[in-house]
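User: I'm putting together notes for a lab meeting next week and I want to include a structural view of one of the chains we've been expressing. I don't have a solved structure, so I'd like a prediction I can at least talk through. The sequence is below, exactly as it appears in our construct file.
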Amino acid sequence: TTTNPKDDGWQWTLGKIQYDWLVKTLSESKAQHKFIYIHHLLVGDPQSRGGVEIAMKNGAREVRSAQTELERALLWKARKQAFGALGRLGKSMVTHDGVIPRTKLPEVLKEVRVIANRHGLDVGNVFHAGDGNLHPNLMFDERDPEQVKRVMDAGHEILKLCVDVGGSITGEHGIGLEKMEAMAWLFSEEDLALMERIKKVF
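Assistant: Thanks for the context. Below is the predicted structure for the 202-residue chain, given as structure tokens.
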């Protein structure tokens, strides 16, 4: 989906990294991309047209351009409601928050699905490609202890994958309890001890 923003003097184009990602992902990946939202693009821009052509060649049902702020808000609403839609596919859902170099998106998305399949789980990816933030959503039934274990193991592997390709275990949601052990993948014992001392100051 492309949007045509209100003309405020800015000239927006699809950045080279994002464009290359779109070409690589849509051309090579067999994943089903249900909804792709690209904002701040000019509909007449050559790169924008290229993105539309790539999407249509790879099975997109529709490429819609917002002509008004209301249309733009409605398109964005679809993105915001993606998590709720995924939640209808499983009794429970856990959302992860890794971040990776944008150039690694195609291979990481493929591997995320491999990991989910290996653990017998459904996964839906909702993310913002422009900054490399991943939000793999694993669906499971929290009433089943075996499924809980599988979803924890799969999440662990996904985060390790993010680190292995040069990313991190969080892009915006923070560490919390579940990721504490994973901090050792990124920081030395000395680093972590210093962080703990700083935390005690406050």
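A couple of points you could mention at the meeting. The helical segments are 16-28, 46-57, 69-80, 82-87, 105-118, 145-164, 189-201. The chain has seven helices and seven strands.

User: Perfect, that's what I needed.
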